[in-house]
Design goal:
- The protein has about 260 residues and is α+β, with helices and mostly antiparallel strands.
- About 40% of the residues lie in helices and about 20% in strands.
- It has 8 helices and 9 strands.
- α2 packs across α7 and α7 packs across α8.
């Protein structure tokens, strides 16, 4: 086995480890959701008697271990990428390389010169043969047409940075799409559809509604929403890892086809 073959094998092993860890994390999150019922809290607006606010409430918080598990999955995937320039810069001992797989959403940032007059591209790929640089250029998010805020590599960078700074705090969130039925006594009910993608912490306003002025008496509110677990301020979700896994696999395959 050549040094390059061994190094790519190590990258793939990290990806496989991350997949197993993701499966274990999925099981932990599902167990938490099944054991933690969510309820809807309806509160009248203190300044407007016809306006009501609806928020989710969960019986308990997720185990902090979940955020560590989530962060480590991101770190495994980031390391799988960083192995690539390391072995190209120093095949005999990649640990001595000062490289990092570059991830830039804007070409101007990638090619911007910093201290010492070197571009970010030159700093990240220090020691990598220049004829290999185009392989890294082709995988930049701006070249792949990624959304600059939610592309796979942008998400990966956000997860690993949040993990390093201990900011991947886990919390129960809702909804993942759903509906709220408002049933005034003696009146026609009406429905409010919850936007898919709204991610709200426990006891944060899900939405508010205002009753028509002619509605009198009590109001019944029935909510139907799905729980999830979010990580960090963004927040990130486990489901987003799927796109990251797919992109990492594409990148490793592309480099492996050119180098091994």
């Amino acid at each position: 086995m050549t040094p390059q073959e061994k190094h790519f094998r190590d990258s793939w092993l990290l990806v496989e480890r991350a997949k197993r860890d993701r499966e274990a994390l999925d099981a932990k999150i599902e167990a938490f959701i099944q054991s933690t019922p969510g309820t809807a809290i309806v509160k009248a607006d203190p300044k407007d008697p016809l306006r009501f606010h609806v928020s989710p409430k969960f019986a308990k918080k997720p185990d902090p271990d979940l955020e560590i598990d989530f962060g480590l999955i991101g770190m495994h995937l980031r390391s799988a990428l960083d192995y690539i320039p390391a072995q190209l810069a120093n095949p005999d001992d990649p640990s001595k390389s000062g490289t990092q797989f570059p991830i830039y959403s804007k070409e101007s940032k990638y090619l911007q010169k910093g201290r010492g007059g070197r571009t970010a591209r030159e700093r990240h790929l220090d020691g990598v043969p220049q004829e290999r640089w185009t392989l890294f250029d082709q995988q930049q998010p701006y070249e792949r047409g990624d959304d600059p805020k939610s592309g796979p590599l942008k998400l990966l960078t956000g997860i690993t940075n949040a993990h390093k700074h201990r900011e991947l705090h886990a919390f129960a969130v809702a909804p993942h799409g759903g509906a709220v039925w408002v049933i005034p006594t003696g009146q026609e009910p009406f429905t409010h559809m919850i936007r898919r993608g709204d991610m709200l912490k426990s006891e944060t306003d899900l939405f508010s509604f205002r009753l028509p002025a002619h509605v009198k008496g009590n109001v019944q509110v029935n909510c139907n929403f799905a729980m999830a677990v979010g990580f960090g301020r963004r927040p990130f979700e486990v489901d987003q890892l799927g796109d990251i896994f797919e992109r990492i696999s594409e990148i490793l395959s592309a480099f492996e086809a050119e180098i091994v």
